[in-house]
Backbone:
C-alpha cells in the first residue's frame, strides 16, 4: 500500500480504523447509531454535532476531560509534547511534589488520549493532534462561556479589531520595536508573553499592586471590570497589554500571559489518577451478612404490610398524578416510618410492579395481580425481585418533597421522579463497595470524590437540582441499600455481591440460610395478646391479622384481640367455633379464658341486629333493643322511625347505618334482600394486569455485539458505495456520471452492462429509484439477470437483493473492479 498518509479529516481518520475500533466508537457513543449512518462521512458528521459531542464529554472521566480542555486552549493542531506541557507545566517551578505529579500525568496521558481518540473527540497523529471543532467551541474560552481551565482568549483573539495606534502604544510600553504591521505587532507581543526570561523581566518592573491584580485573575475567571479612570496598577497592566480590553468596562488577561504566570499549566491541579476510596471501618463479614439479611426480612415485611394496607383499594390519585401529602403521611404512620422512607417503600413496590393505578373513573392505587404471585414466592426470591427492580429503576424517591424546575412539588408516584442517571450511579456505588474486601465499609466522602472524578459535572444543573445530582443519587443509594438489605452495617453483603456478579439464583441461595424460618404457632397470653416469636407462615399471618390488631413489631410481633377485631373475623364469615379451633391449633400455650369469653360474648351479640336496604332498615327480634336505639341521642342523625315492633327504617345508606350502630357499641350484621347475613370478607381489590414502569434510559441503550457488527458492515458497505473509484465517463460511449449525480445510461446499455458483470462476476455502480421515488447510489455484484430483474449482492446493504431494471437510472463500471 506504500506509506500511510496522515488523515486530513475526521472522516479519513475513521475510515482508517479497523472494524473493532469502529465498533468501540459506536459502543461508547450509541447515539451515533440512531439511525445507522449511511457511510463513514455521515458517521463523522454526526460525531461532530453539538448534542452528540456534549453527551460524549459528559461521559469522560476527570483526566480525560482535562486532556480535552488542554487541547481546546492549545494551538490547532497541537503536538503531543505541547499537550503534555500544558498538563505538567514547563518544569521551571517544579519541586519534588511537582515531579511526582508530572510523572503521574506522563504515565496517564496516553490512556486519556486513547479514550478521546476512541470516542472520535480527538483525531490525527501525535505530531498533529486535533480536537473535534465542536468540542473546541464548547471548551474554548469566551466571555459568555469561560473555559473550564480559567484561561482567557489569546493575544491575537483579544486584539482583533484593536486600532494599529493602540498596538503601537502597547509595544512602546513593553520596550518592543515599533512596527506598522498589526499582524507583526500581535506576533511580537505574543512572543514576549511566551518568553519566560523576557516576561519575568517585565513583571519584575511591575508594581506590587499590579501583581496582586494578576494573582486574582490568573486561575480564572480571567475577566475583570474597570472604571473609566482605572487605578495606577490596572493602568500599568493595561498599558503593557497584560490586560486587554473586551469592552469599555471589561478587560481580560490574555492566555499567553496567564500560562506564564501558571508556569505553563492549563489546570491548577491535574488529576491523572482516580481518588482512592479508603475503608472507614472493617467488620466481620458474617456479621455484615446477618445484618443485611435481617434488614432484607424487614424490607419484605414492610412491602407486604403496604400491600395489605392498600389491599381493599388504596388512596386516590391526584389530578396531576401521584400521591397526596396527606396519603403519604397516612402510609408513613401505618408503616411506622418517616415520610421519606415511606416514599421509598411505595416507589419500590411500584417499580417492582406490585402496585399500580386501577384505571377506574375514580382512579386509585391498588396491588396488581403480580403482587399475589410475588407473595407466593419464597422470601429469598421475593427479596431478589425487589433488589433487581431497585437496581434498574430510574424513579428516584429521594426527590419526593422537593420541587421541579417550575416550582411545583414533587409527589410520591408522581410523573416527574425519573432520573436516567440513577441506575448507573447505583451500580457504580455498589461496584466501588465490591472492590473493597468483604466486610469493609467505605468512607462516604472519598466515595463521592471518586464518583465526581469518574463523571465530573458539565455545565449548570437545573434550578430544581442545583446541587450535584450524582452526589445526591449516591447518598440516596447508600441509604436505600441499607434499608433494602443490600448492605449491612455499611458494608456490601455476600448476597448482594452474588446478585451483582452471578445473578438472582445465586443471590437467593446465599440469602436463604440467613433468613428465619416461618413459624406455625403463636403464644397466647392472658392480657388478650398473642406473641409471634418470629415470622409466621402466610396463612397463619393472614388469619391472625383479621382476628387481631398488630400492637407492636420487632423481633417478635405482638397482636391484641379486641371486640372490634373479633367482630371483623366474624364479619369475614368465621364462626365462634372456628375461632376457638384456630387458636387452639396454633397456640403453644393454652387459650386464656378471657379470650374465650371475649369471642363468645362478641359472637353472641353478632348479628342480633340486621341491617338491610330501605334505604336502610334495622331488624331485631328484641323490641327492647330497638327502643334503646331510638332513645339514644347518638341515633338522631340516622333519622330512624319504627315500621313495626321489630323493624326500624333509616334515611341513611346501609353502610353508614352499619358503622354508626357499631360506633354506638352494638354488633349489627348486614343482610341481603332475601334476609341472609352478608359475609364481609377481607376485601381484595386488584388492578388489571399491569407491567412495571419502564426505566427511562440515559440516552440510547448500549447496542449488543450483533447489532454493532451489522452496523459496522452496513457503514463499510455504504462507504464503499460512496467512495469507490469509478471509471471516467469518457470510457463508455454514452455514460454520463458527473460528480454527485446518479449514473445515466440508456436501457439497452444498462442491460448489457449488468449482464456482462453477471458473467464476469464483477461489481458495478448503479443509480436506483425506489417505489417511493427516493434516489440512491448502490454498489452491486450482479448474479442473475432475467425477466426484467437483476438479482445481485448489494454491498451497500450487505445482502442479496432484486432490482427491477426499469428503476435503474444508469450503470457505471468500477475502476479495478471496485478494488481501487
Residues:
Amino acid at each position: 500500500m506504500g506509506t500511510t498518509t496522515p488523515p486530513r479529516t475526521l472522516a479519513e481518520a475513521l475510515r482508517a480504523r479497523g472494524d473493532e475500533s469502529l465498533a468501540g466508537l459506536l459502543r461508547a457513543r450509541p447515539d451515533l447509531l440512531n439511525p445507522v449512518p449511511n457511510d463513514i462521512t455521515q458517521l463523522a458528521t454526526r460525531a461532530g454535532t453539538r448534542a452528540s459531542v456534549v453527551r460524549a464529554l459528559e461521559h469522560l472521566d476527570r483526566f480525560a476531560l482535562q486532556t480535552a480542555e488542554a487541547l481546546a486552549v492549545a494551538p490547532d493542531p497541537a503536538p503531543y509534547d505541547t499537550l503534555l506541557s500544558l498538563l505538567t507545566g514547563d518544569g521551571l517551578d517544579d519541586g519534588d511534589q511537582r515531579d511526582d505529579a508530572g510523572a503521574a500525568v506522563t504515565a496517564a496521558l496516553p490512556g486519556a488520549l486513547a479514550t478521546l481518540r476512541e470516542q472520535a473527540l480527538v483525531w490525527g497523529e501525535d505530531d498533529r493532534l486535533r480536537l473535534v471543532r465542536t468540542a473546541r467551541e464548547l471548551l474554548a474560552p469566551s466571555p459568555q462561556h469561560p473555559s473550564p481551565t480559567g484561561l482567557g482568549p489569546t493575544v491575537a483573539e483579544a486584539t482583533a479589531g484593536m486600532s494599529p495606534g493602540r498596538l503601537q502604544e502597547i509595544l512602546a510600553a513593553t520596550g518592543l520595536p515599533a512596527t506598522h504591521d498589526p499582524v507583526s505587532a500581535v506576533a511580537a507581543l505574543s512572543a514576549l508573553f511566551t518568553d519566560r526570561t523576557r516576561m519575568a523581566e517585565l513583571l519584575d518592573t511591575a508594581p506590587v499592586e499590579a501583581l496582586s491584580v494578576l494573582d486574582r485573575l490568573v486561575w480564572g475567571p480571567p475577566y475583570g471590570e474597570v472604571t473609566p479612570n482605572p487605578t495606577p496598577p490596572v493602568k500599568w497592566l493595561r498599558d503593557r497589554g497584560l490586560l486587554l480590553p473586551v469592552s469599555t468596562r471589561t478587560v481580560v488577561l490574555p492566555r499567553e500571559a496567564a500560562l506564564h504566570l501558571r508556569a505553563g499549566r492549563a489546570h491548577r491541579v491535574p488529576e491523572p489518577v482516580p481518588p482512592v476510596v479508603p475503608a472507614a471501618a472493617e467488620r466481620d463479614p458474617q456479621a455484615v451478612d446477618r445484618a443485611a439479611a435481617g434488614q432484607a426480612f424487614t424490607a419484605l415485611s414492610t412491602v407486604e404490610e403496604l400491600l395489605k394496607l392498600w389491599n381493599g383499594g388504596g388512596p386516590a390519585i391526584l389530578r396531576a398524578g401521584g400521591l397526596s401529602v396527606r396519603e403519604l403521611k397516612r402510609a408513613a404512620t401505618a408503616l411506622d416510618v418517616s415520610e421519606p422512607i415511606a416514599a421509598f417503600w411505595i416507589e419500590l413496590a411500584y417499580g417492582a410492579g406490585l402496585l399500580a393505578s386501577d384505571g377506574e373513573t375514580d382512579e386509585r392505587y391498588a396491588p396488581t395481580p403480580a403482587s399475589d404471585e410475588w407473595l407466593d414466592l419464597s422470601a429469598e426470591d421475593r427479596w431478589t425481585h425487589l433488589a433487581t427492580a431497585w437496581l434498574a429503576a430510574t424513579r428516584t424517591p429521594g426527590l419526593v418533597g422537593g420541587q421541579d424546575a417550575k416550582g411545583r412539588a414533587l409527589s410520591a408516584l408522581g410523573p416527574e421522579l425519573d432520573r436516567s442517571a440513577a441506575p448507573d450511579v447505583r451500580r457504580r456505588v455498589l461496584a466501588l463497595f465490591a472492590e473493597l474486601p468483604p466486610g469493609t465499609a467505605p468512607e462516604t466522602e472519598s466515595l463521592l470524590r471518586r464518583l465526581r472524578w469518574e463523571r465530573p459535572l458539565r455545565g449548570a444543573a437545573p434550578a430544581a437540582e442545583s446541587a450535584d445530582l450524582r452526589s445526591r443519587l449516591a447518598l440516596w443509594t447508600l441509604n436505600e441499600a441499607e434499608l433494602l438489605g443490600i448492605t449491612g452495617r455499611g458494608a456490601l453483603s455476600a448476597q448482594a455481591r452474588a446478585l451483582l456478579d452471578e445473578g438472582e439464583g445465586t443471590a437467593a441461595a446465599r440469602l436463604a440460610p440467613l433468613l428465619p424460618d416461618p413459624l406455625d404457632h403463636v403464644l397466647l397470653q392472658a392480657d388478650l395478646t398473642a406473641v409471634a416469636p418470629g415470622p409466621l407462615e402466610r396463612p397463619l399471618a393472614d388469619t391472625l391479622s383479621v382476628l387481631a390488631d398488630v400492637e407492636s413489631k420487632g423481633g417478635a410481633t405482638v397482636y391484641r384481640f379486641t371486640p372490634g377485631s373479633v367482630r371483623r373475623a366474624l364479619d369475614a364469615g368465621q364462626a365462634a367455633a372456628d375461632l376457638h379451633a384456630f387458636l387452639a391449633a396454633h397456640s403453644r400455650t393454652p387459650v386464656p379464658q378471657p379470650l374465650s369469653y371475649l369471642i363468645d360474648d362478641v359472637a353472641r351479640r353478632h348479628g342480633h341486629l340486621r341491617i338491610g336496604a330501605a334505604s336502610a332498615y334495622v331488624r331485631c327480634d328484641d323490641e327492647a333493643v330497638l327502643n334503646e336505639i331510638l332513645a339514644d341521642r347518638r341515633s338522631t342523625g340516622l333519622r330512624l322511625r319504627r315500621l313495626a315492633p321489630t323493624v326500624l327504617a333509616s334515611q341513611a345508606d346501609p353502610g353508614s347505618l352499619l358503622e354508626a350502630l357499631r360506633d354506638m357499641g352494638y354488633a349489627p350484621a348486614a343482610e341481603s334482600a332475601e334476609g341472609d347475613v352478608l359475609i364481609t370478607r377481607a376485601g381484595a381489590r386488584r388492578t388489571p394486569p399491569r407491567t412495571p414502569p419502564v426505566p427511562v434510559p440515559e440516552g440510547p441503550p448500549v447496542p449488543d455485539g450483533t447489532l454493532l457488527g451489522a452496523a459496522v458492515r452496513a457503514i463499510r458497505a455504504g462507504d464503499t458505495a460512496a467512495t469507490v473509484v469509478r471509471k471516467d465517463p469518457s470510457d463508455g460511449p454514452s455514460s454520463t456520471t458527473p460528480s454527485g449525480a446518479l449514473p445515466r445510461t440508456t436501457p439497452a446499455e444498462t442491460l448489457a452492462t449488468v449482464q456482462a458483470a453477471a458473467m464476469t462476476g464483477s461489481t458495478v455502480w448503479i443509480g436506483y429509484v425506489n417505489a417511493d421515488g427516493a434516489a440512491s447510489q448502490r454498489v452491486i455484484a450482479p448474479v442473475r439477470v432475467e425477466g426484467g430483474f437483476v438479482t445481485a449482492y448489494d454491498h451497500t446493504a450487505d445482502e442479496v437483493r432484486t432490482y427491477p431494471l426499469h428503476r435503474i437510472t444508469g450503470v457505471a463500471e468500477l475502476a479495478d473492479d471496485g478494488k481501487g
Observations:
- Residues 459-467, 728-740 have pLDDT under 50 and may be disordered.
- The radius of gyration is 39 Å.
- The chain has 33 helices and 25 strands.
- The first strand starts at residue 122 and ends at 123.
